[in-house]
Each structure stands twice: as structure tokens, then as C-alpha cells.
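Researcher: I'd like a structural prediction for the single chain below. Treat it as a standalone chain; there are no partners to consider.
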Amino acid sequence: MRGFRPTKPERTDTQSTAARVHAELRRRIVHGELAAGAALSENGLAAEFSVSRTPVREVLRELITEGLLEVGRRRQNIVTAHTPERARELSLMLGALGDLVAGESPRVLEHGDADILHLILIRTEREITAGRFEGAVDGFDDFLVEVAELANLPVVADTMRRLCAHARLAGLGVPASPEALSAHVTMLRTLAEAVEAGDREAARVTMGAITSARGTARDDRPGAAD
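Model: Treating it as a single chain, here is the predicted structure.
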């Protein structure tokens, strides 16, 4: 039986503001709207979001902790740039983490647990049909994270979320064509079915193909999301 997910405490106004700013900045970075090396100004962000510098400073620190930002030579907060060596490491980590999740999830999932995976795929297919590439890849990321959550592996799920974000920053992932995106959805659906059936071997094989695709370098990333 899966463990329960504890109810999160209510956020204060400051925490809610920080969460809103964090979500938007993270989206811009992961979607490529803020390019590697771009500097983020604390004062500029505070003005843009109509908030004080305190929540902005908190968000920037959190993004640095996540590795999405780094401190530049002039003490600026800049979007992290990934080297080919780091990209290769990310690819290897995705594969290892995916194998762990695929091996564990069929063992602990209960009947009906995978319904949310199919809902994510439906949403992802809508993004593909609408031509929203980054939205489709958001769905891919959410799917992998949710598989880990369903397997009652919260630490792994958080790590997977961060790895997926870094993989996108490093230019790794599925090509931005409807055919490639739809083929990836098919693999994810096959994984969901293997997990539901309790077939660990099939889940591992399929997850291996998925993480291999997510860990492959690509050079056709759009400059910005729709």
C-alpha cells in the first residue's frame, strides 16, 4: 500500500508571492525564454512583479540551489550554462534514475493509481496538437515525476524534476516535430500500461528508451515558447 502524501501547510503571503515568482522564472528558464548566461536583476524583477526585493532574493537563492542559476564573476545571478561534459552526466543520471523508478513503481502501485498518468498524456497530446512544444515537454517531465511520486519515492521525484529541467537547459530531449513528440507519448503510454500490469521488465525496457530519448542532444529547440 502506498504511503500517504502529507498535507502541505498553508503559505503566508510572502511565501505565496515567492512561489508565484519562482514558478514564472523557472518556467522562463526551462522553456528557453531566458538564455544561458542571461543575467537576472533583483531590482528589475521586483519592479516587474510589483513585489519587494525580499521574495525576489529568496527566489533567486532557491534557483541557485536548484542549479538553474549561478553566480557570475560580477556577483550577478545568471542562467546556468551546461558544458557537453555536464550534458553527458545528466544523460547518465536520467537513465539511472529512470531505471530505479521503473523497477520500483510496478511493485507498489495499486489499482487506479495510474489514471493520473493517462490524464497527463491526454493533456500532453493537446499541447502537441496545438503546436505548443514546450507545453508538450512539460507534460513529459510531469509524467516521469508522477511515476516516481506514485512509487512513493518523493526524493527521487524531486531529483527527477530537477534533472528534467537541467536536461532541457543542456539542449537534451525530444526533437520539436509532431511525429517525434507523438512517438514519445506512445512510449510513455506503453510505460503506464507496463506499470499498471506490474511488469517490471517491460517497464524498465520502456523507461530505458524514454530516458535515452530525453538524454539525446538536439539542436532544433525553438527560441521561445508559444
